[in-house]
């Protein structure tokens, strides 16, 4: 097994199993939870007390580090079977949701994945976001840490881009499996997300913070995550404007097209009706979609609006 020629820095960690006991047929992308350099990450993996490592790491500046050679198994994903067959990659990220990575780090990740696939005979990356397909690389050869431990890793930012990552890599590999996520969902709405939590109490806390800043926000459940989102926009520019406002207010946010089932709608019909009259929920079909997406009874709210108008 060879190592990547793209490596800029090497510091081999003692935290490894040598050699790995399975051929490489999988990749596992992680987020570091810190916009660190490859040198810093090497120092993190250096002590034996850390009991953790990865094959590669990508710094905020796009440089690539190697901490465990490909012939060896890293201790990265809380699952020996996965780490024995996977190349694990830690990517520098923000320290809070959605754990975003820099453009340089993302570009380096694509370059590294293409190189890994070419050298290890992986003809294409396959992603279905299906935990039940672990260990079946012919169906899915990308795994995530959250499937093996109670963690959000690789964070919402990278997790929701796995299909796009696979598509970009496959395009460069010459694969026909090029299926990027559509820019818009079937409903054609953009949403701005400020957090995703496994614990509903944490989601409730974020919801309260966003509301306290004056934003029209709501909670939806997607899979096992409670997500805090703002707005539902047909025009992406409007979502981008809201994103900038949220970021200016101190929130780490990003635009998504993912819609889930509404959770815990907490405003009264009277309160909502007054907000509608103030223009906060849009008009016509857009108003209906936004109210229902937030978990409210559109018919009841509209009836109250008609009474107050």
Overview of this protein structure:
The protein has 309 residues and is an alpha/beta fold. It is 34% helix and 18% strand. The protein is built from 10 helices and 13 strands. The strands form 3 sheets. Strands 1-5-4-7-3-8 form a 6-stranded mixed β-sheet, with helices on both faces. Strands 12-9-11-10-13 form a 5-stranded antiparallel β-sheet. It has a two-stranded antiparallel ribbon with strand order 2-6. Helix 3 packs across helix 5. The longest helix has 17 residues. 41% of the residues are buried. About 2% of the residues have low confidence.
Concise description?
This protein is α/β, with parallel strands linked by helices and 309 residues long. The protein contains ten helices and 13 strands.
Question: Topology of this protein?
Answer:
Elements: E1 9-10, E2 16-17, E3 26-31, H1 38-45, E4 56-58, E5 64-66, E6 73-74, H2 80-85, E7 86-91, H3 103-119, E8 142-143, H4 155-159, H5 162-173, E9 190-197, H6 200-212, E10 217-222, E11 225-233, H7 236-248, E12 254-256, E13 261-263, H8 269-277, H9 284-293, H10 298-308
Parallel strand pairs: 1-5, 3-7, 3-8, 4-7
Antiparallel strand pairs: 2-6, 4-5, 9-11, 9-12, 10-11, 10-13
Helix pairs in contact: 3-5, 8-10
């Amino acid at each position: 097994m060879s190592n990547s020629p793209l490596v800029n820095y090497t510091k081999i960690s003692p935290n490894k199993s040598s050699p790995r006991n399975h051929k490489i047929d999988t990749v596992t992308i992680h987020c570091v939870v810190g916009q660190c350099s490859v040198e810093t990450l090497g120092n993190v993996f250096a002590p034996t007390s850390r009991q953790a490592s990865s094959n590669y790491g990508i710094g905020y500046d796009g440089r690539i580090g190697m901490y465990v050679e490909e012939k060896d198994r890293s201790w990265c994903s809380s699952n020996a079977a996965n780490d024995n067959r996977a190349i694990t990659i830690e990517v520098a990220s923000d320290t809070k949701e959605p754990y975003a990575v820099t453009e340089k780090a993302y570009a380096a990740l694509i370059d590294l994945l293409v190189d890994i696939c070419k050298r290890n005979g992986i003809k294409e990356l396959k992603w279905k976001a299906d935990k039940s397909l672990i260990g079946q690389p012919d169906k899915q050869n990308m795994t995530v840490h959250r499937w093996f431990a109670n963690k959000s890793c690789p964070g919402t930012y990278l997790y929701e881009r796995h299909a796009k990552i696979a598509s970009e890599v496959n395009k460069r590999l010459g694969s026909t499996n090029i299926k990027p996520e559509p820019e818009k969902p079937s409903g054609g709405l953009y949403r701005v997300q400020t957090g995703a939590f496994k614990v509903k109490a944490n989601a409730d806390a974020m919801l309260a913070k966003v509301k306290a800043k004056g934003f029209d926000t709501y909670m939806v459940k997607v899979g096992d995550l409670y997500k805090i989102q703002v707005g539902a926009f047909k025009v992406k520019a409007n979502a981008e404007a809201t994103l900038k406002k949220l970021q200016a207010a101190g929130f780490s946010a990003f635009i998504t097209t993912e819609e889930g089932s509404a959770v815990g709608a907490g405003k009264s019909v009277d309160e909502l009706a007054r907000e509608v009259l103030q223009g906060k929920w849009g008009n016509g079909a857009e108003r209906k979609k936004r109210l229902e997406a937030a978990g409210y009874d559109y018919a009841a709210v509209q009836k109250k609006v008609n009474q107050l108008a």
